[in-house]
Design brief:
Blueprint (H helix, E strand, L loop, with lengths): L13 H9 L3 H15 L11 E6 L5 H9 L3 E7 L2 H13 L6 E5 L12 E7 L9 H10 E12 L5 H11 L4 H13 L3 H8 L9 E3 L4 E7 L3
Parallel strand pairs: 1-2, 1-4, 2-3, 4-5
Antiparallel strand pairs: 5-7, 6-7
Helix pairs in contact: 2-3, 6-7
């Protein structure tokens, strides 16, 4: 078993943030949004009587909130991140895509956001957990903020079982750029195993089986909060 080696929690170097934003995440982001909608049978509603209030935890440069709002006309998103460099790029992306009225940004700690309990219909998060030394407080905060019967969709990388498996994943998905390959390898080493994630979810009142391996390199926690 590979020992977990942490990455930096906050990517606040403007050059690193710009390099991350420049990577082509469109296919991955579209898949994330499609999977969120499929998990909870969410359909686009042009004239919905009430908005779908969404929180994106660790939103980065806001590409997923933009994709979600493009698919769901009634969605409005609060997108939070700790990185000022990421949020600066997020503002530009939101403005460029004409989403200033539907996506709000805030610098906030995922483990202590300051938002009210049971405030959001849907909370999403993509690839933040592997950045956290102790993910438990942030997962607990997500469970606190979602409304009863509200939806949680958290996805992140799975830590490989061996160096051979890690090398295979980097060869398969790391692309040709050496920096991208290094970042992927570092992220895989910092990720949790399926068992580790389930151990974190169970005390929050959710069935551990709501966390599943959803690809050869990802786990997903998809659940509704008990009433």
């Amino acid at each position: 078993m590979i020992i977990r080696i942490l990455e930096e929690e906050v990517m606040d170097d403007p050059r690193e943030a710009a390099a991350y934003d420049a990577m082509d995440h469109s296919e991955v982001n579209a898949k994330f949004v499609e999977d969120v909608c499929a998990a909870f049978s969410i359909e686009p509603q042009e004239n919905a009587e009430s908005p779908l209030d969404v929180l994106d935890v660790g939103a980065g440069t806001a590409l997923i909130p933009i994709a979600l709002c493009q698919k769901l006309p009634n969605a409005r998103v609060m997108a939070i991140d700790m990185s000022t460099a990421m949020l600066d790029l997020a503002r530009a992306n939101i403005d460029m895509d004409g989403m200033l009225g539907r996506i709000q940004l805030a610098q906030a700690d995922a483990s202590d956001t300051g938002y009210q309990s049971e405030m959001f219909d849907l909370i999403i998060s993509n690839s933040i957990v592997h950045h956290l030394e102790d993910p438990a407080p942030s997962l607990r905060e997500i469970a606190r903020m979602v409304r009863p019967q509200g939806m949680i969709f958290v996805r992140d990388l799975l830590r490989p079982a061996s160096e051979e498996e890690l090398s295979h994943l980097v060869e398969t998905y790391g692309g040709e750029d050496e920096t991208e390959r290094r970042l992927l390898a570092d992220s895989l080493r910092a990720a949790l195993t399926l068992e580790e994630v389930r151990e974190l979810i169970a005390p929050l009142g959710f069935d551990a089986e709501t966390v599943q391996a959803t690809s050869d390199r990802h786990w997903t926690w998809a659940a509704r909060k008990p009433a």
